[in-house]
């Protein structure tokens, strides 16, 4: 049994990372040429890690299921990336970023990891600017910042609504340089289907070539998982449709503990579901909440009239609108954290105030911001007697500069002009704070196997603050893993090449082939999507924005039954030894069917509400999350022992020496 040792360095919080770097083992540059590292996933975390490791001299193999690293889901991140540079002079600091992140995660994350994240955040911006990432700039040429939910400062750097795309292009260019130097060997359109352990250490992977169907063996001295999150266990989410948990789950089945699977983030600013045939949801950036005001009608009859198409939102008077976030949380208003905003929207819609045909939508209105910016621009332009129409036109120009591509995307999907009528939004599954358990060095419970970015659990606790995903992914890839992995690899300088012609690789490949054969041999009564959609409905209805013990137990039972039926009756057409996208999906859904049950078990075990995990039995009289710090201040780390029902729970107690645990308040 693996020992759950977080390996947090001794000493003062602000000095832990510096002292740790000074004391860990290093690998001589000449020896790095003899060491191989596999990186699974080439988004921001994997791409930055691969580029940096190769720059240091290691031989790197990268694997992604996309046709290019540029297609990683990191490209979809819109609003920005956090860093505590205090360019706005509004009181930001490393400590404030650390505190906001700990508080935003509802005091369920590890202090040492979060402080390190804050410390290196400024370096990320410098690195990306040097790569040519076109961050937005103020008139004087300095980098601009905007605010995101859960904070009282402006620390979010952005590139219009394309921040993830621009950052990914920076990481990809760094990767490409190393590919051209021969230090990175890319394996695109390849999927990791198993982890190989030799003498208890991660020594390679089994991958499937998604073009030819071939099963391949790849060896290395260490394996880095950077494969993203598991939000698609809900079927409908803001994730790319190919996003999956396979790499992380294969490692979990080989001995890597899986931590806090029930911590899933519901994003409040998504385009509402339009029908049963929808395959994914679209995110509208949280940055829109800087200027958009969220509201529903005060009167149910007005909401009913809007749903029936008898009343337009622009016809509703100001006094008849309920700006419920501003009413309930006056200190933060529309910029409360995502979990708080999501639950508030659900509460209003459940109470009958929803505004689309399904009753599951609220308004995000930019009218006030358009007029405010228009008046300011008119004055700056010398137009002291500008008409309302002129002011509106000027204000729309400002909004277009800040959010133009997001408004364009919304109009293309919904066929409504958000400059003229409020956007409709509703919460949807977005990010997963849970993931593979890692220690301070980002190493899993399998020696030599590391997990970075969204694939691990380490930095966000029970709720991620907006613009912190990009920060964590790049921090892990550029500035943390390249240091910490050397401490492990220093013992491998005399190991030599790892052979794939061993009994361990034979066993792993045999296991993979047997699994594929089993997937292909189903009775063929139902498609893969049939099972994925059924799982998604169970997860959303019983493990979604709110949970209770009865529903969670029911979900556990239903998922177990669904999984049994899947293996008997799934239909996977085509052949195993050629391109077969249904086989790809089947393998991913098979893992989701195991993860879903563990997710529900984890949620049932945690008898408290915290962050994105909201248990209906544990809430304040005002409907806010009610934590139980006496009994649940720990990380749930699950050990695989054969099936989810038999998983063993290990607890990493969280110790808070630098912040006081108190009830989160954004009022």
Helix proportion: 25-40%
Major sheet characteristics: 5 strands, parallel
Spatial strand arrangement across the major sheet = 5-2-1-9-17
**Ends: how far apart?**
45 Å
Shape, principal axes of CA atoms: globular
By DSSP (H or I, 4+ residues per run), the number of helices equals 18
Q: List unreliable stretches of 5+ residues.
A: none
Whole-number average pLDDT?
96
Class from secondary-structure proportions: alpha+beta
Q: If you had to describe this structure to a student in words, what would you say it looks like?
A:
With 667 residues, the protein is an alpha+beta fold. The protein has helices spanning 16-23, 29-32, 44-56, 94-104, 111-131, 163-180, 246-253, 300-307, 324-328, 338-353, 367-380, 388-414, 469-489, 503-520, 528-543, 549-569, 581-605, 629-632; strands at 36-40, 59-64, 81-82, 156-157, 184-188, 190-198, 201-209, 215-219, 222-225, 258-259, 264-270, 293-297, 321-322, 362-365, 423-432, 435-436, 449-451, 634-639, 648-653. A five-stranded parallel β-sheet has the order 5-2-1-9-17, sandwiched between helices. Strands 11-15-14-12-13 form a five-stranded antiparallel β-sheet. Strands 16-10-18-19 form a four-stranded antiparallel β-sheet. Helix 3 (44-56) packs parallel to helix 13 and helix 5 (111-131) packs across helix 13. It starts with 15 loop residues before the first helix and ends in a 14-residue tail after the last strand. 53% of the residues are buried. The model has no long low-confidence stretch (mean pLDDT 96).
């Amino acid at each position: 049994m693996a020992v759950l040792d977080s390996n947090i360095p001794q000493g003062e919080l602000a000095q832990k990372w510096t002292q740790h770097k000074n004391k860990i083992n290093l690998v001589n540059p000449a020896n790095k040429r003899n060491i191989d590292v596999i990186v699974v996933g080439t988004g921001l975390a994997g791409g930055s890690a691969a580029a940096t490791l190769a720059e240091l001299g290691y031989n790197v193999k990268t694997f992604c299921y996309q046709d290019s690293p540029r297609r990683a889901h990191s490209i979809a991140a819109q609003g920005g990336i956090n860093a505590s540079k205090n360019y706005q002079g509004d009181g930001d600091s490393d400590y404030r970023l650390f505190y906001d992140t700990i508080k935003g995660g509802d005091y369920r994350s590890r202090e040492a990891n979060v402080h390190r994240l804050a410390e290196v955040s400024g370096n990320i911006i410098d690195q990306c600017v040097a790569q040519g990432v076109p961050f937005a700039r103020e008139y004087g040429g300095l980098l601009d910042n905007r605010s995101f939910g859960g904070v009282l400062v402006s620390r979010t750097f952005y590139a219009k609504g394309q921040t993830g795309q621009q950052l990914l292009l920076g990481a990809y260019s760094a990767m490409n340089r190393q590919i051209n130097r021969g230090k990175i060997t890319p394996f695109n359109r390849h999927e990791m289907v198993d982890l190989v352990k030799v003498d208890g250490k991660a020594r390679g992977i089994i991958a499937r070539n998604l073009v030819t169907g071939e099963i391949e063996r790849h060896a290395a001295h260490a394996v880095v998982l950077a494969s993203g999150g598991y939000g698609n266990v809900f079927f409908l989410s803001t994730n790319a449709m190919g996003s999956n948990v396979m790499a992380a789950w294969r490692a979990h089945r080989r001995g890597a503990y899986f931590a806090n699977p029930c911590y899933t983030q519901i994003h409040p600013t998504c385009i509402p579901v339009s029908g049963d045939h929808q395959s994914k949801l679209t995110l509208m950036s949280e940055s829109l909440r800087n200027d958009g005001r969220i509201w529903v009608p005060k009167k149910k009859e007005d909401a009913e009239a809007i749903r029936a198409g008898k009343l337009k939102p622009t016809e509703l008077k100001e006094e008849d609108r309920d700006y419920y976030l501003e009413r309930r949380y006056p200190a933060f208003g529309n910029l409360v954290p995502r979990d708080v905003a999501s639950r508030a929207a659900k509460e209003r819609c459940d109470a009958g105030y929803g505004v689309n045909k399904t009753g599951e939508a609220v308004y995000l209105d930019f009218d006030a911001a358009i007029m405010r910016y228009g008046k300011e621009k008119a004055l700056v332009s010398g137009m002291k007697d500008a008409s309302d129409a002129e002011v509106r036109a000027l204000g729309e120009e400002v909004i277009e500069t800040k959010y133009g591509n997001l408004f364009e995307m919304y109009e293309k999907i919904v066929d409504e002009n958000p400059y003229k009528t409020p956007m409709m939004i509703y919460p949807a599954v977005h990010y997963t704070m849970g993931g593979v358990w890692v220690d301070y060095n980002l190493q899993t419970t399998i020696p030599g196997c590391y997990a970075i970015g969204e694939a691990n659990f380490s930095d966000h606790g029970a709720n991620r603050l907006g613009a912190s995903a990009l920060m964590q992914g790049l921090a892990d890839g550029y500035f943390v893993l390249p240091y910490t992995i050397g401490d492990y690899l220093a013992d491998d300088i005399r190991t030599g090449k790892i052979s794939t012609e061993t009994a361990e690789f034979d066993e792993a490949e045999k296991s993979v082939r047997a699994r594929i054969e089993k997937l292909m041999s189903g009775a063929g009564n139902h498609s893969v999507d049939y099972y994925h959609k059924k799982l998604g409905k169970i997860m959303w209805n019983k493990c979604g924005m709110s949970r209770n013990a009865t529903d969670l137990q029911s979900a556990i039972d239903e998922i177990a039954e669904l999984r049994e039926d899947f293996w008997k009756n799934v239909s996977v057409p085509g052949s195993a030894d050629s391109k077969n996208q249904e086989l790809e999906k089947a393998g991913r859904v098979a893992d989701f069917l195991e993860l879903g049950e563990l997710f529900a078990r984890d949620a049932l075990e945690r008898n408290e509400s915290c962050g994105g995990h909201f248990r209906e039995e544990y809430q304040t009289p005002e409907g806010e999350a009610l934590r139980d710090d006496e009994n649940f201040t720990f990380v749930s780390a699950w050990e695989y022992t054969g099936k989810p029902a038999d998983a063993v729970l290990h607890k990493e107690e969280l110790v808070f020496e630098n912040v006081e645990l108190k009830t989160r308040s954004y009022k």
